[in-house]
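Lay summary

Proteins are chains of building blocks that fold into shapes. Our project writes down both the chain and a compact code for its shape. Here are two examples, one after the other.
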Amino acid sequence: MNNQSEHEPFMRRALALAHGVWGSTHPNPMVGAVIVEEGHVVAEGATAPDGGPHAERLALLARGKTPRPGATMYVTLEPCSTAGRTGACTDAIIASGIRRVVVGATDPNPAHAGRGFELLRAAGLEVITGVLERECHQLNLVFNHWITHGGPMIAAKVASTLDGKLACRTGESRWITNEAARADVHRWRRLFPGIAVGAMTILKDNPRLTARRPGEPEWCPLRFVFDGLLRTVVDKNLPAVFTDEFRERTVVVTTPHGGLGYVRKLRDMGIQVWTFESPTQRVPFGDFRKRCAEERIAGVLVEGGAQLISEMLRARQLDYLFAYHAPVLLADDKAKTIFSGLRPERMEHAVRLADVIHENFDGDLLMRGRFVYPEKLLIDETVFGARG
């Protein structure tokens, strides 16, 4: 049974198991594993939360006994070959007596990639790789970046009309995209450990910044509010992220220009405050990224506003983009645009996306991919002013 198409139904089941633990395993990858005997699934497993057993070990535990001769394990990601906190999965598979392992994606960690396959083959196991490889690799978008770059994936989410507008000239923006597209946003919110917005988005929209999906309890990631002057604390009517039941999951990211009194006020309410030294009111994005790495926050989804996203873009601090487009035209040059602050003079100066994926949500389109910055990024200093 070496025809890869014959393996796909079992790998799709392993993928479904991995999707079942969506967003709950950071900073570890989401992995699904199934054990198949005589063409039937007899045991399953998916990665436990950080510090718990991996999918392969849980599948073996679920089997409850030694797999039959000829049993095959299907796993979405190359089994780990280092001990870590839970022991190497390659050791557990070899000890189980399983003689064949079918794998989706290779470990993205350059230090480990392919080593698990080598150990399994050296022990006499048959190893088949690359079954539904793209789907298995894409499953762990955040983890793949974390493990290869040693820091968080900073992604931007934008929703716009076909002509790139995110609001009418009046500021009205609800709703550009349809219900299906907005539901997909909540799916990605559940994946990323953190969500970030700027102060003006908080003051204008008062969002909850939680993942709300049918049939699931409301879930709250870390909610980062970029507010270099602490404008969100001035008004007596404080925003929801400072007062709701998840307020301890809110982190205000600021500078010393905001004032110590407001910092104390926030901390007294149970709000976390990250203060970064800066010559201006703008938070240094590189320092924010470094702090996230220190806190083992594997990814942050930046949902607005346009100025924050544009500033991060021109600082080369965005790694990935989720761009939702609705079949709507405003055709108004005074309507608000998504991105600004660059001054490309030739197409070679443009920022591009790589590894692009397209998805359709009842007519609304999602284009998502990895940012690729030109060697020379030309900045328009008249838009936001020099960063200092």
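And here is the second example, written the same way.
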Amino acid sequence: MKISDKKLLNRYKRLIETTIDLASTLDLNTLLNRIIDVAKDIAEADVASILLYDSASRQLYFQVATNMDPLMRGLAVPMDSIAGWILINRQPVRIEDVSKDKRHFGTVAKVISYETRSLIGVPLITKDKVIGVLEVINKIDGGFNETDQELLTVIGAQAAIAIENTRLFQQSDHIAEFVHELRTPLASLSTATYLLLQPAISSEQSKQIISNIHNETIRLNMLASSYLDLARLESGRVQFQKTTFPANLLFEECKTSMQPKADEQQISIELEIPEGMPDVEGDRDKLKQVLINLLSNAVKYNRPGGKIVISACWDSKTWQIRVTDNGYGIPEKSLPNLFQKFYRVKGMETKVGGTGLGLSICKEILQGHGGRIEVESQLGVGTTFTATIPRK
């Protein structure tokens, strides 16, 4: 057997293995990364990427790539680009020199300082519905050929089915979780309205019930808004707007925003930010959302007269932002579950209001920045949340 024949046989073998592997995961991010890794290897390309189509907004979004800055996830790609043409026409494209193609969208290359020379792109189609585009970029040795395109087309067909199945699973899972969480407040509202209809109810009781309905309605609205935020983050349809900004101004802004709530419990908020802190790179609004969520929790789960400290540090690779309180603390057995959707620390659900989604949203935002969130806590002493994001 010739070396070239053996090499091609190995590529087909990998393709068969891939078909089995893609059906083994129901986590969308894991699945997408597996697809691009396989596409890159089988096409013997330098880079592979996936763009997904949002039919609601009629927009194509850059979703994942083997060389991607995490903040590029959700970057909108125009429909008159090469990927847009593939999506609209539902046909594969092989281009030897993209610099000569007027459809080439160069923004991505500029963001990551990467030059695209050649590419193959195939549509991701399932059940006669196009859901995105799979691309491989820059053949490692020579140029892309017909075999590369055929192999990528097969991968694309299998990938489209796997992506759609995973989305449907996540969607049904999300709906089941959300409906479950709606049952309690809806039951509370049903009881309240029943009581209001009773002729024997006093004016004072009526006012109290109306107040309860108002509060429960606000909580339902917060629950719906938070859940939509989380669902969009998990699906990768949130576009991060990367900017460079001074961290101390963001901290002051968040402190000012939360101070009135803290004042109600005589809780102090202090900043401990060393001088000379370098500017932060990231989505300012999303990072503000993280900090506000952490401060809100620190206020809610603190004692009257308590204290909250916002601090920061950095090294050559990361920034770290810490929110520390001297509140009630969290039981050790609850710590591993804190970032799960709808999780509430047992014993605190009735004492402190909330949706149980804030920390899940923080986790998704920080992961979208290529970072992470960690927690340390001791009962009766307090809690520290640490958000870490990479420096570029």
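What can we say about the second shape? Residues 263 and 307 are 11 Å apart (CA to CA).
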